[in-house]
């Protein structure tokens, strides 16, 4: 019996990449039952992060595999907004320890084992006409298999703009737009056409024109969902935001 347990433990360590957290279901695939997992924890061969979540001792979970694990339980979970822009090298200034912005389709709460290690915020957002298993312009980071899903810079910018007047300061959003000269107009056009937020569409067009971004001239406002002919008005702690059609 002890030999079988050691063999399973060796198999586990062989299949377990450094920094990768595993669930009870992952262990079961490797032939490790819940009772055996408890034995491994007591023996110091596994560390229990939370109920049903484990890692190797002295090998704390790394960010990317941890996000990949969360994606299995959150529909449409991906790195977006300012975090995605930062991952793509678009930023206004660098924070020493920035908060990770994660987006998904359903209301939820990130587990403590994750947020204790990685300061993060999760937000339910349905900004585009899409399906959670086929998000628009969301790909594995660096196109590497198993990497966390991350918004393309064009989508990430729109995710930032969608929160202006709510939790996102307008000036910071403006600064990010000013740094977005390399955005692809065709990708931005595709996203804007399927955007469900009139405010986001109008703000993108307005800031793009004001800052003379090259992609702004390639967008035809008449082909985008800008809503009615009336101005869009929002009042927040930062003041009044008026977006003309």
Written description of the protein model:
This protein is an alpha+beta fold and 245 residues long. It folds into two domains: 2-55; 63-243, no CATH class. Helix content is 36%, strand content 15%. It has ten helices and ten strands. The chain has helices at residues 2-15, 24-29, 34-42, 63-71, 81-87, 112-115, 153-161, 170-178, 185-193, 198-210, and strands at residues 22-23, 47-50, 53-55, 78-79, 100-104, 120-124, 138-140, 149-151, 232-236, 239-243. It has a three-stranded antiparallel β-sheet with strand order 1-3-2. A three-stranded mixed β-sheet has the order 4-5-6. Strands 7-8 form a two-stranded antiparallel ribbon. Strand 7 and strand 8 (149-151) form a beta hairpin. The longest helix has 14 residues, at 2-15. The model has no long low-confidence stretch (mean pLDDT 88).
Count of structural domains: 2
Integer-rounded radius of gyration:
22 Å
How do the SSEs run, as a string of H and E? HEHHEEHEHEHEEEHHHHEE
Q: Structural class of the helix and strand makeup?
A: alpha+beta
- How are the strands ordered across the major sheet? 1-3-2
Low-confidence stretches: none
Mean pLDDT: 88
Distance between the termini: 73 Å
Query: Can you tell me the overall shape?
Result: elongated
Strand content: 15-25%
Count of DSSP H/I helices: 10
Task: Please give the share of residues in helix.
Answer: 25-40%
Number of strands: 10
């Amino acid at each position: 019996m002890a030999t079988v347990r050691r063999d399973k433990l060796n198999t586990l360590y062989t299949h377990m990449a450094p920094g990768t957290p595993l669930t009870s279901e992952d262990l079961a695939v490797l032939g490790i039952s819940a009772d055996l997992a408890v034995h491994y924890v007591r023996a110091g061969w596994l560390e229990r992060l939370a109920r049903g979540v484990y890692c190797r001792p002295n090998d704390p979970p790394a960010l990317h595999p941890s996000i990949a694990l969360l994606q299995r339980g959150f529909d449409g979970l991906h790195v977006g907004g300012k975090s995605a822009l930062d991952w793509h090298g678009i930023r206004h200034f660098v924070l020493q320890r920035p908060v990770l912005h994660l987006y998904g389709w359903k209301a939820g709460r990130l587990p403590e084992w994750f947020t204790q290690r990685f300061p993060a915020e999760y937000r339910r957002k349905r900004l585009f006409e899409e399906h959670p298993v086929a998000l628009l312009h969301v790909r594995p980071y660096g196109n590497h298999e198993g990497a966390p899903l991350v918004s393309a810079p064009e989508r990430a910018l729109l995710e930032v703009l969608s929160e202006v007047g709510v939790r996102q300061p307008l000036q910071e959003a403006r600064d990010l737009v000013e740094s977005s000269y390399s955005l692809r107009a065709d990708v931005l056009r595709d996203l804007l056409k399927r955007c469900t937020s009139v405010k986001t569409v109008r703000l993108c067009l307005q800031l793009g024109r004001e800052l003379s971004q090259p992609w702004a001239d390639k967008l035809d406002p008449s082909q985008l969902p800008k809503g009615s002919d009336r101005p869009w008005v929002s009042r927040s702690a930062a003041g009044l935001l008026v977006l003309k059609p």
